[in-house]
């Protein structure tokens, strides 16, 4: 095979070399398919298929006796269900408090432990320890500590003559308590994420800033915060997923409050659980799950649009 590259130079590619190159391309394609197939199969079986079944179930009345197509009846019921709207309000309050709280707490702790000094490893381990504990165990321990009358805090407060609120028995305190324990449980992992983002910032930037006379506060606002924006975006995004879906927080609510008192801690995910597994309303629960998932995707899309897919003002 002869290829003319310009008016004066001609390159000849032997047929054997051309076949070898084509074989290498086909081999690379086969290798790529082989590496991607397990992930693709996993996404299909564990994400796409269950999502499709959930959407189908949301259009049906599903009972142990059978499946009856009802169209949009479950969604119409949802619009008229005050408990669903209350659960959305509780979820929104939880997310609004949890997301900035997690972000600020993780960033603050990361700035305290990102440098190497005597005992920093111990501090990191202690701060990460809550994340290594099962949320069910966490909920049981905190329910014992916060129990009215004979709980650890109540016992100590009574001995000192100090009044304490009913942490899990008053609507005004119950959600605050669940949010606080959630932050305590998740702060360690996202602290490590923030530490990784902080350590990726070149030390030369801080050295140059110190030479120019910038103090610690100026370095934080002019260097640390701008350079860590992609990491902060990741934490905010994951915190939003945790806050809206409530998948992890469900364990705490189930163990500590059962959604009470007066549905003050009944996150939407817990209300979905009640409808599906306590009342057998699987179609209605699937409809609420679909709406919650769509809401999460919309908020995530807004995040990516506002931040240029997490890159902010970086081109590319």
Helicity level: over 70%
Could you say which overall geometry the principal axes of the C-alpha atoms support? globular
> Major sheet: size, sense and barrel closure?
2 strands, antiparallel
Question: Which oligomerization state do the chains in this entry correspond to?
Answer: single chain
Give me the number of helical elements.
13
Rg on CA atoms, Å: 27 Å
Uncertain residue ranges: none
Strand ordering within the main sheet = 1-2
Percent strand equals under 5%
Number of strand segments = 4
Helix vs. strand class = mainly alpha
Question: In terms of topology, how is this protein built?
Answer:
Blueprint: E1 2-4, E2 10-12, H1 15-58, E3 60-63, E4 66-69, H2 73-79, H3 82-113, H4 120-128, H5 135-146, H6 152-160, H7 171-199, H8 203-211, H9 216-227, H10 229-245, H11 249-256, H12 268-278, H13 282-306
Antiparallel strand pairs: 1-2, 3-4
Protein model, in words:
α4 (120-128) packs across α7 (171-199), α5 packs parallel to α11 (249-256) and α7 runs antiparallel to α10 (229-245). This protein is mostly helical and 316 residues long. It is built from 13 helices and four strands.
């Amino acid at each position: 095979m002869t290829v003319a590259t310009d008016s004066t130079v001609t390159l000849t590619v032997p047929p054997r070399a051309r076949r070898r190159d084509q074989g290498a391309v086909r081999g690379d394609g086969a290798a790529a398919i082989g590496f991607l197939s397990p992930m693709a199969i996993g996404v299909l079986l564990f994400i796409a298929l269950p999502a499709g079944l959930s959407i189908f179930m949301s259009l049906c009345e599903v009972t142990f006796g059978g499946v009856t197509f009802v169209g949009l009846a479950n969604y119409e019921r949802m619009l008229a269900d005050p408990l669903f709207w209350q659960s959305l309000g509780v979820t929104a309050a939880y997310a609004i408090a949890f997301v900035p709280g997690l972000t600020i707490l993780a960033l603050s702790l990361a700035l305290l432990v990102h440098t190497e000094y005597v005992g920093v490893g111990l501090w990191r381990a202690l701060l990460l320890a809550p994340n290594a504990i099962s949320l069910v165990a966490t909920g049981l321990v905190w329910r014992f500590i916060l129990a009215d009358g004979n709980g650890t805090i109540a016992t100590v407060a009574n001995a000192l003559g100090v009044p304490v609120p009913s942490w899990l028995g008053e609507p005004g305190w119950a959600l605050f308590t669940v949010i606080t324990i959630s932050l305590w449980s998740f702060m360690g992992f996202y602290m490590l994420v923030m530490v990784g983002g902080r350590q990726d910032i070149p030390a030369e930037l801080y050295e140059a800033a110190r030479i120019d006379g910038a103090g610690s506060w100026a370095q934080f606002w002019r260097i640390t915060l701008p350079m860590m924006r992609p990491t902060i975006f990741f934490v905010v995004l994951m915190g939003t997923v945790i806050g809206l879906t409530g998948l992890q927080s469900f364990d705490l609510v189930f163990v500590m409050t059962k959604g009470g008192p007066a549905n003050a801690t009944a996150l939407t995910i817990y209300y979905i659980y009640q409808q599906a597994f306590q009342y057998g309303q699987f179609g209605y629960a699937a409809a609420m799950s679909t709406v919650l998932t769509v809401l999460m995707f919309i908020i995530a899309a807004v995040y990516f649009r506002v931040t240029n897919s997490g890159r902010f003002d970086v081109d590319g």
